[in-house]
Amino acid sequence: MKEFLHFLFSKLFLKSLLKVLGIFLAIVLLIFTWLRIYTRHSQGISVPDFFGMTIEQVDKITKDKKLRSMVVDSVYITSAKKGSILDQNPPPGFKVKKNRTIFLTINAFNPEKVMVPNVTGTSLREAKAVLEMRGLVVGRILYVPDIA
């Protein structure tokens, strides 16, 4: 045991240990430097605000900025222009690298079709509730005289 401790504190062992640590540190620094260059760290493009634009306008801007765009969802909002961009991910101003895909949500050109439920024979209150649950709006109510 005494010889082992003597060896641990010998000049030969300490020189070898320092060489190994130096080589290890050099390798780690080389790897981090290579990763910074390879991933283009801190080189980014600011994402433009596409809200309200059409797909054609977005395609032109993304091509100029070396980005890509993809429509991933559509919703129908009556107050918004048909085919316009309503949402995007990543958000405007976010820094991204070139060739990054910007995911878009557009306003649909047509509203979603809904199956109209059969409310014949139900009370007015129940019929309104069923129709509103399906996303329909109750319009003019027409009473038809019935024997029952």
| Largest sheet composition | 3 strands, mixed
Give Rg in angstroms.
33 Å
Mean pLDDT, nearest integer? 89
Q: Provide the β-strand percentage band.
A: 15-25%
Outline type: elongated
Q: Largest sheet, order of strands side by side?
A: 2-5-3
Beta-strand segment tally: 5
Helicity, in percent? 25-40%
Structural class: alpha+beta
Order of helices and strands: HHEHEEEEH
Short description:
By secondary structure, the protein is of the alpha+beta class. The protein has four helices and five strands, in the order H-H-E-H-E-E-E-E-H. It is 37% helix and 16% strand.
What does this protein look like?
There is one protein chain. The protein is α+β, with helices and mostly antiparallel strands. It is 37% helix and 16% strand. The chain has a three-stranded mixed beta sheet with strand order 2-5-3, with helices on one face. Strands 1-4 form a two-stranded antiparallel ribbon. The longest helix has 28 residues, at 11-38. The protein is elongated. It starts with a helix and ends in a 15-residue tail after the last helix.
List the helices and strands and how they pair.
Blueprint: H1 2-8, H2 11-38, E1 45-46, H3 55-64, E2 68-75, E3 85-89, E4 95-96, E5 101-107, H4 124-133
Parallel strand pairs: 2-5
Antiparallel strand pairs: 1-4, 3-5
Defining key terms:
4 helices; two-stranded antiparallel ribbon; 16% strand; 148 residues; 5 strands; three-stranded mixed beta sheet; alpha+beta
